[in-house]
Amino acid sequence: MPDIETERLLLRRMRADDAEDMYEYASDSEVTRYLTWFPHPDSRYTRDYLEYLGTRYRVGDFFDWAITLKESGKMIGTCGFTSFDYTNDSAEMGYVLNPKYRGQGIVPEALRAVLDFGFGNLALHRAEAKFIEGNEASRRVMEKVGMKFEGIKRGGMLIKGEYRDIGICAVLRDEFYK
To answer: Would the pTM of this model clear 0.70, i.e. be above it?
Structure first.
């Protein structure tokens, strides 16, 4: 998995030494409010998770990048493909950002770069992202990168013991490059 550079960011593999930076936001219940996972209980859990991801990278089918600031090298979130539908040349995307860096256009910058990689290097035809209903900020990010809102899947996912309505946005390769 290659590094990807943008104007302000370096997207790279996550590493075990990112544990402190990741734990800073992954332990925050407000950050995970609209995510499928619970807050990390301690920094050891975060380190173990990052060590596990190292095995996923080695297999070669894992494309989730650490979002790092070029200027400081600090990891401030993640962005990448969470699953692939190889039969239909499609992938689902996900992202999370440390709340200290919200409102600066960082996630759209990272998403555009990852979408370009997916369409250009992985020959994807379609990329989609989901959001838990109520997370309008996430939907706006998706729309900023050219994704179109396709609808709500009522009771679409069991998340933290509760069936939640899930919004879906997507973009096709030819739409992205227009």
So the answer is: yes
Tokens coding 154 = 């009522």
The tokens of 62 are what? Answer: 């894992």
What would the pLDDT profile of 71-121 be if each residue is shown by its tens digit? Answer: 999 999 999 999 999 999 999 999 999 999 999 999 999 999 999 999 999
Compute the distance between CA of residue 167 and CA of residue 156 in angstroms, rounded to an integer: 9
Q: What is the Cα–Cα distance from 122 to 115, expressed in whole angstroms?
A: 10
pLDDT in tens, 146-166: 999 999 999 999 999 999 999
Instruction: Tell me the two tokens of residue 75.
Output: 């990891």
d(CA 40, CA 38): 6
CA angle, residues 23, 25, 31, in degrees to nearest 5: 135
Alpha carbon of 74 to those of 1, 61, 81, 142: distances in Å? 20, 25, 21, 24
Indicate if the alpha-carbon torsion angle 65, 70, 73, 77 is positive or negative. negative
Return the structure tokens found at 47: 């380190």
Can you point out the beta strands (E) in 35-74?
63-69
